Task: structure prediction
Amino acid sequence: MNKKIVTIDGPAGAGKTSVSYALSKRLGWIYVDTGALYRGVAFEIKRAGINWQKENELRALLDDMELDFMMEKGCPVLISSGEDISGKIRTADIAMLASSVSAMPVVREALLSIQRSLALKNNAVFEGRDMGTIVFPGADFKFFLFADLKIRALRRYREMKNENHDLEKVEHDMEKRDKNDSLRECAPLKPAIDAVMIDSTYMTLNEVVEKIFDIVNARL
Result:
């Protein structure tokens, strides 16, 4: 029996992570935060202190890297060479570096096999920026979640309450990341032609989850 795949793409702060996780629990499927994989690469680049713009250095790092997802007590955990790095990748500098390195074909190639191998074994909800366009163009269900920039920045600012950031800087960084992700040549951020567009600006988390769940459930 073929496994079912839901892809949820969209810009930072649109609510993809919360929606995808809640939806996966509602469906009883696994949740894969593909953005965390790129953050994992960024974290290891920073830890190793390599020049990621030199492809030979980047490729050498990727060849030695072992990234995997595990579910522990219902929560996704990112493992790098046996170490749980989930709590170390949610910083602003790691997010910006992840956005930059995600444009590198060698990085996308390295992570593609991880994502597709997970889909072969599990019904899954995949969250990212190119899940429905590049990674799983034949996905059973595709959604693109978006929201007003100021609302997205405010949401992210509230998530970063323990870090020393101001709202204006968060919005500026998010706008810059949107531009980087949308204009890159390799797998740019854009909705799949057959994706369902959902504007989450004035919707609650539960409202978004219910809308997606109803669409998926009606076709299962």
